[in-house]
Design brief:
Shape: globular
Strand content: 25-35%
Structural class: alpha/beta
Number of strands: 19
Length: 349
């Protein structure tokens, strides 16, 4: 059995063991692992964090691999050190860890780096621009991003981002977008209806009701471009609806990468009598920056967005904090942040 969340009230799902083994094997194959070759894989987060990590364990067992699992979260520098010490050839990362590694490698470009065959990034959408930064530091490494959902097995699809020195052209063409979902695993089908992602999977949980012959509504908001690439910018319940217009927070947040001294941004919805919902942008910066005059940062943020989004998508207010609530995987807890912010804002919009 597995749970769908490392925080809050977990949902429980049951799986047939053989289907879970098959799902893990399909995932390993999609990442280019050779079952006849021994590998050394690093999971820099504890196994208890998500059910998706169980697939990593099952896959490594089937593929004759040595698996190194952290008993607690380790820093970006720790990831580099562990990979070198244990002669790791493959690393699984989360998007926050990608950002942390980029920060480390920017500050210390000459730090010793491991010789890796592959890096796989999962658990949440990763921005193409952040992935490209990391790829530049590992020119001989294959990069992948994966999408999964606990209910579906949990592995669903894999996108090959290219080798570090030769990124997939999709990343270069749309650097401010999250990476596409890529190819579904054998036994999985994807479709888009009403900008929502639906999945049919032979690996899905046995207690979902209709069985694996029906499509399952993931509740994930998604967009499909003219080339058929499907992207999931975020959960459907993260979407902000202002006067009937949909605003996808991740698209706004992506436009603000690279602005100093912003460490992270999160667009949330607050209620409004006039518009239904309005967007509020919450920015994480160091404490001493908050104590300074923040008007310059606000002006730079607004100037960046002014040329890129319509007026309806502009934040009604910008809030600066030195920390944002996060899950154990480093994801920002939007719902909790929204409740905290609404408790501090006053007045009607």
């Amino acid at each position: 059995r597995g749970t769908s969340s490392p925080t809050g009230t977990p949902k429980s799902y049951g799986f047939k063991l053989q289907q879970s083994l098959d799902n893990a094997k399909a995932h390993m194959t999609s990442l280019g692992f050779d079952p006849q070759t021994s590998h050394r894989i690093l999971l820099p987060l504890p196994i208890t964090h998500t059910f998706g990590m169980v697939a990593g364990v099952l896959g490594s067992l089937q593929y004759n691999s040595d698996l190194f699992i952290a008993n607690h979260g380790i820093s970006a520098q720790g990831i580099m050190q562990e990979a070198i010490e244990h002669n790791i050839d493959s690393i699984y990362l989360t998007p926050p860890q990608v950002i942390q590694l980029n920060t480390l490698l920017k500050r210390r470009p000459n730090i010793p780096k491991p010789q890796l065959q592959r890096i796989s990034i999962g658990s949440a959408p990763v921005l193409a621009s952040e992935l490209l930064k990391l790829m530049a530091h590992f020119p001989n490494t294959d990069f992948y991003t994966t999408y999964g959902l606990t209910e579906m097995g949990p592995r669903v699809s894999t996108f090959y981002a290219g080798i570090g020195s030769d990124p997939n052209s999709v990343l270069l063409e749309q650097p401010n977008q999250v990476t596409p979902l890529g190819n579904p695993l054998p036994g999985v089908e994807l479709k888009v209806e009403d900008q929502r992602l639906w999945i049919k999977s032979t690996y899905q949980a046995i207690n979902l009701g209709q069985g694996d012959s029906h499509y399952y509504d993931t509740q994930d908001q998604c967009l499909q471009d003219e080339n058929g690439n499907i992207r999931v910018p975020g959960r459907a319940d993260d979407t902000i609806i202002r006067s009937g217009i949909n605003i996808f927070p991740h698209e706004i947040e992506a436009l603000l990468t690279g602005i100093e001294p912003l460490q992270a941004t999160c667009m949330i919805a607050t209620p409004s009598r006039a518009y239904g919902q309005i967007p509020v942008l919450v920015c994480q910066v160091e404490e001493e920056k908050i104590q300074d005059d923040t008007s310059t940062m606000e002006q730079e943020i607004l100037a960046r967005l002014q040329d890129a989004v319509p007026a309806t998508h502009m934040p009604a207010r910008i809030v600066f904090r030195n920390q944002l609530p996060r899950t154990s995987l480093g994801k920002i807890q939007r719902n909790l942040l929204a409740r905290e912010i609404m408790g501090t804002l006053h007045g009607e919009h």
